[in-house]
Specification:
Layout: H1 3-18, H2 25-32, H3 36-42, H4 46-65, H5 76-89, H6 91-103, H7 105-131, H8 141-162, H9 173-186, H10 192-203
Helix pairs in contact: 1-2, 1-4, 4-5, 4-7, 5-6, 5-9, 6-7, 6-8, 7-8, 8-9
């Protein structure tokens, strides 16, 4: 792994464990046993590192939601599972995005573009699920938009909402809870075997 990649991976780990504010570029350099000058050769400041991590997270998100031509769409429950695993991998973003966006105007613009693309990909995925007979038809375009917006808002703010006021380290249990909340939102739009799959998932005890 190249030094630039190591900086990104180490930063993700430190930001997840300690929060963005508490971690400096000196902390990252020390964790990697490199000089601050070596780090600055690759990234001018901490904001550049955060933007690079955001690009990485965005690409992984798009790859998850895309369906290639001729490929069967992903099972909704599988997609919920993998999406929340992504949230956990980059959990500092979802805990601190409001602060990070206020602090960095460039990151704020990137976030807005990211949300717009996610909404588009989610809408396309719903239409593919519909063709598979997994979902009930939603006649009004506004209703589809409402569903997609509510699901994305719920999923992307879940950690921030449920960890507010907690005095202990963020728990993995919140991610497991998030999967069930989103499934409960989507279950009302499922039909046939897909409804059975969702009902079975929601009957299982939470982790």
């Amino acid at each position: 792994m190249k030094t630039k990649e190591k900086i990104v991976m180490t930063s993700i780990d430190l930001f997840n464990r300690h929060g963005v504010v508490a971690v400096t570029t000196n902390h990252i350099a020390k964790e990697l046993s490199i000089s601050p000058g070596n780090l600055y050769f690759h990234f001018a400041n901490k904001e550049e590192i955060i933007r690079q991590i955001f690009r990485l997270m965005s690409r992984e998100t798009y790859d998850l939601w895309k369906t290639r031509t001729g490929q069967r769409p992903k099972h909704p429950l599988d997609l919920i599972e993998k999406n929340f695993e992504l949230f956990w991998r980059y959990r500092f973003f979802h805990r601190e995005m409001y602060y990070l966006r206020r602090k960095d105007a460039q990151l704020s613009k990137m976030w807005k573009a990211h949300i717009a693309k996610c909404l588009k990909l989610m809408t396309l995925m719903y239409k593919r699920w519909l063709k598979q007979g997994w979902m009930t038809p939603i006649g009004a375009v506004d209703e589809i938009s409402f569903l997609v917006n509510v699901m994305l808002a719920t999923a992307s703010t879940f950690l921030h909402f449920f960890e507010s006021g907690e005095r202990v380290a963020p728990a993995r249990k919140n991610i497991e809870l998030g999967k069930r909340y989103v499934a409960r939102l989507l279950v009302h739009y499922t039909q046939g075997q897909m409804r059975n799959d969702f009902d079975e998932f929601l009957r299982l005890p939470s982790s």
